[in-house]
Amino acid sequence: MSTNMPAALADGRYQLGRLIGRGGMAEVHVAQDTRLGRVVAVKIMRSDLANDEIFLRRFRREAHSVAQMNNVNIVNIYDSGEETITNDDGSSERVPYLVMEYVKGQTLRDIIKANGPLSQRDTEQVMLGVLNALDYSHRMGIIHRDIKPGNIMISEQGMVKVMDFGIARALDDSVATMTQSQGVVGTAQYLSPEQARGETVDMRSDLYSAGCVLYEMLTGRAPFTGDSAVAIAYQHVSEVATPPSTIVPGLPKMWDQICGKSMAKDRQNRYATAAEFRNDILTYMNGGIPVAAAFNPLTDLANMKERKQAEQEAATEAMNPVETTATQAFDPLTGAYQPAAQGAGTALKTRTERAAEERERKKKKIIIASVIGGIVAVLAIAGIVFGITHMRKPQSVTVPTFTSTTTQARAREQLSSVGLKMKVEQDTDSSKPKGTFTRQTPKGGAKAVKGSTVIVWFSAGPESRQVPNVKGKTQAQAKDILKSAGFKVSPATQTEDSPDVVKDHVTRTDPAAGQPADKGTTLMLYVSSGMTKVPDVTGQQKDAAVKTLSSAGLSVVVESEYANAPKDTATRTDPGAGSSVAQRSSVTVYISRGKEQVQVPNITTDGTMSLGEARALLQAAGFQVSVNGPNANNAKVTSMSPGPGQQVDKGSTITLATQAPSSSEGGSTGGQ
Q1: Per-residue pLDDT tens for 471-523?
Q2: Is 146 designated active site?
Q3: Which residue among the candidates 52, 88, 135, 146 is catalytic per the annotation?
């Protein structure tokens, strides 16, 4: 990699972190997507390969291959691009990169290396995940071509993820096997025989590699090993692997048959599809007998091993006959020693003689089968020739092409005009309006026999489904669940506070969970910010206020205070209501002790204290003053209510009764 690798890519969107993996053509770094606030893995192509068109095509192919796939067992690719880097010498390099789903866990290779063989149950679960990924990718028209333990991730939650589609090819492009210096691409220990020979590959090549992975999980070692990749590739082409049950005592022999079926040298004898492979494992998991493996003894590793050993022993005996009391002679036709003609007292036949006779019997059976097969072939050819001779070549026509605006009546008219019939089918999986054309078989532009039937599908209308509840799920998990339910997910997300959902996990959807929505509807995901809002508990009773705050994900501290509020009710919180705080933060709730009680000052009410003096004394103590009588400062206080020394609420109003001063006292008549 370049020593000038930047700290971020895509104008700062992806902040690169530590190196978490290194392969033959790229390095993988953990990174932070600052725009969406999530952790991702960024695969950066080695700068010394960026100008190699072969590797560049492989790198771009991975982005194209995986970007169009969406499966729970395949690592998702979110983004791709190229970064231009300036080196110390002033030269610039282009560095392509992929932004992928970050899977926290271990590769299957590391798990086997650390722990040895897996248990049968763990082996079954991993294989089901791998085969589910292959079944999906094959249906999408993509062959992986490098299935191996190092490309299989096991997350911390036990989820199986297949990754590294760097040498994947489209099924219709698999003829051109990509090589480097004429070397076959792939990993030697898991290479199918046809890949090793440089022949075309198909989905069964992936299944062979998957069989090698199954073998290694059961035994702890690859089926073939050697000093070089060439030596290992040669064994894939010509050798038979030791049956797993021979390596692991007590392992059921049914695993020999399943491995043998998947690792057959001739791809015609392998599992036809990943689904068939998966069904055999599911059947065996549930106590049944795998159908495909059970009825294919030619690919049983144990039988093949025993057959090969028997043939070697027979050949050895033929070249090294055992001396017996019977006279023997070498037969050049059979390549074995035969007993000379003897009377009734001939000695017992040797093992070599029995082997020779067995070969003769097999030879006769092969001759008989060949004759019968030849007769059948001749009859079949004769029938074909007769049919061709007596049948007129059918007329072909071009199938019309329909679009979303084509109605049933118009489609029928177009087909009828070229001599074709129409069969209408309802497309119940379509999210388009009812009656909209969705697909046809054969496709438009194809050739079809005149008078044949074209099947045309029209939408039955969007199916209404209930939105699943994905609260608390990661964004990736939520998207998988919603897409599996037939919905689309908006690429943008909304962030909001939540009392109980951890940061970056889903809080809700719009439309909400449980609501009906048409299949294909685009849903919006709301994601937790890791913060929560302090609820307003003013006026609530103490216990109710504490419960409300705890339900909001807060740690509650209770304090009391005098307040102009009913006793034992909440008066306020700190931080205040509506504030955003981190989840599980501490918040203080204040509970009213009622109004503060104070003692009424001792005011003289015998007419000797003036109103001005009494008012000043009461106001200084925090009371309000009401006057009943003359309001002049020199008026005399004759009584008060409440009376002196009584306990009353702080700030209460004290009523003073007054009378005018005597004429001899005079003074001011102004009130305050």
Answers
A1: 999 999 999 999 988 889 999 899 999 988 999 999 999 999 988 888 888 99
A2: yes
A3: 146
